Amino acid sequence: MTAEDCGLLESFERALRQQKLSIAYQPKVSLKDGKLSRVEALVRWDDPELGAVSPSRFVPLAERHGLIDPLTEWGLGTTLRQWRSWREQGLTTHLAFNISAVSLQRLDFPDLIEGMCRSLGVPPECLVLELTEGATQQLIKLMDTLTRFRIKGMGLAIDDFGTGYSSLMQLRQLPFTEVKIDQAFVADLPAAHDCRLIVRMIVELANGLGLIATAEGVETVEQLRSVRELGCDVAQGYLLSRPLEAGQLIPWYRQFKRRWPELIGAESLALWGNVELDSLS
Ligand code: C2E
Ligand code: MG
Ligand code: MG
C-alpha cells in the first residue's frame, strides 16, 4: 500500500467511526411518465483536510481493508431510515443501494439485509441492490446468494453494464431484475450511430429477458429524448437531477413534475396538471 493510500485509509476509518460520512440521493425517473422510479443512495465523504473524496477512490480501499461491511451497514441503515422519513412525508419510492462483491462472499449477507429492512420497517420489495459488472466476475459462484435476495423480494440491478468485464452469460444465468446501461454509451447520443445500436441492443435484450433497462449519465435533453426513443424504461443523470441531500428530494420532485413535459418535448401540458404530493409516488 502506498503512503498516500495508508493516510487515506486511516482518515476514512476515522470518518466512518465518527459518523462523518453522509449519503446523497439521486433520483431515477420513469421514461414512460416522468414519475420517480427509485432513488439511488451514494455515499459521500467530505473531509475537513482532504475535501470531497470520491467513492470510486475510497470504496475499493474499504473493500481491500475490511471496512466494507461496516460502511454498508451504516449506509444502508441511514438510507432505510430516510425511506421512513420520506414515507411519513407522503412519498413512497424504491431505493437503490450499491453493494460490493466482497460483501456477497458472506453467506449471511441476504439475511442481514433483510433483518435491517424488517427492523427499520422497510419492505424488502422496496430495495434494489446494484452490483457493478466488474465486481460480478465471480458472480456465477454467487448464484445462491443472489437467488436468496430475490426470494426475499429484493430487486437486483447490474450496474455500469457493457463496460469492464462484460458478459452476456451473467445476464442469462443470474437473477437480475434491472440492467443499468453504462454512461459511456449514453455520452455520445444521439449522434453516434454505434452507441445508438448498442443501447437499442441492450434494451431489447433486457426487455426480452423481462428486465428493466435504465440509462445512466443522462446529461442533455438530446440524450434524454434519444434514450427514450431507443426504448429505455428509466433514466438517471445530471439533467434530471444531481445527487441530492435527503431534504431536497421532495422539493426537487415537485419542480421536476412541471419540467418533465418540456424535457421530453410533449405537446400537451394538459396531462400534467396535478402535481400534488400524494400523486407523486
Ligand atoms: P455508480 O453506482 O455507477 O453511481 C453513479 C455515479 O455516476 C455516481 O458517482 C453519480 O454521482 C455519477 N453520475 C450520476 N449522474 C451522472 C451524470 O449525468 N454524469 C456523470 N458524469 N456522472 C453522473 P459517485 O457518487 O462518485 O459514485 C461512484 C461509484 O462509487 C458508484 O458508481 C458506485 O459504484 C460506488 N459507490 C457509491 N456509493 C457507494 C456505496 O454506498 N457502497 C458501495 N459499495 N459503492 C458505492
Ligand atoms: Mg450504482
Ligand atoms: Mg453506474
In words, what does this structure look like?
There is one protein chain. The chain is of the alpha/beta class. The chain has a single domain (18-258), classed as TIM Barrel (Alpha-Beta Barrel), CATH 3.20.20.450. It is built from ten helices and nine strands. The protein has helices at 3-17, 55-64, 68-88, 109-119, 143-151, 168-173, 183-186, 193-208, 221-229, 249-264; strands spanning 21-30, 36-47, 51-53, 94-99, 127-132, 155-161, 178-181, 212-215, 234-235. Strands 1-2-4-5-6-7-8-9 form an eight-stranded mixed beta barrel, surrounded by five helices. The protein is globular, with a radius of gyration of 19 Å. The termini are far apart. It binds ligand C2E and magnesium ion (MG) (2 copies).
Topology overview:
Blueprint: H1 3-17, E1 21-30, E2 36-47, E3 51-53, H2 55-64, H3 68-88, E4 94-99, H4 109-119, E5 127-132, H5 143-151, E6 155-161, H6 168-173, E7 178-181, H7 183-186, H8 193-208, E8 212-215, H9 221-229, E9 234-235, H10 249-264
Parallel strand pairs: 2-4, 4-5, 5-6, 6-7, 7-8, 8-9
Antiparallel strand pairs: 1-2, 1-9, 2-3
Helix pairs in contact: 4-5
